[in-house]
Amino acid sequence: MTTVLEIQATRADQAGQIVNLAREAGVFNEEEIATVEELVSDYVAKGDASYYRFLSCCQNGRVSGFTCYSPRWLTRGTFDLCWICSAPDVQRQGVGGALIRQTEEAVRARGGRLLLIETSS
């Protein structure tokens, strides 16, 4: 059986799942989790007016992964991939790759030409 990955802009009712997913992933510290919570709250409150954008990957009615991206300050067409996360039980099953592809599409749609990824570790 093939699992369908539904990736779309994060909805307000998914914000709590995003924060829980960041916590459950086991790779982010408390400050990072608090930052995810702050950014996703800003995004769902402001929508397109938010500087940050979130995409959610859903499987069987639950958020199984997310990305957060934003334009890079003082550049033209350059974006940052700020966060990518998938649930521990779906890792190595294509969620991250699908999220990256959809994020690249979203960046292109916003006039992006370059997506930068930096790690914190």
Q: What features would you describe in this structure?
A:
Helix 3 (95-109) links the parallel strand 4 and strand 5 (114-117). This protein has three helices and five strands. The protein has a five-stranded mixed beta sheet, sandwiched between helices. With 121 residues, it is an alpha+beta fold. The mean pLDDT is 93.
Q: Rounded to an integer, what's the Rg over CA atoms?
A: 14 Å
Q: What is the tally of beta strands? A: 5
Detail the poorly predicted runs.
Answer: none
Quaternary structure of the protein: single chain
User: Please, how many helices?
Assistant: 3
Series of H and E elements: EHHEEEHE
In terms of structural class, how would the helical and strand content be classed? alpha+beta
Q: Describe the biggest sheet?
A: 5 strands, mixed
Shape: globular
Proportion in β-strands: 25-35%
End-to-end CA span: 36 Å
Helical proportion, percent range: 25-40%
Q: Strands of the biggest beta sheet: in what spatial order?
A: 1-2-3-4-5
What is the typical, i.e. mean, pLDDT? 93
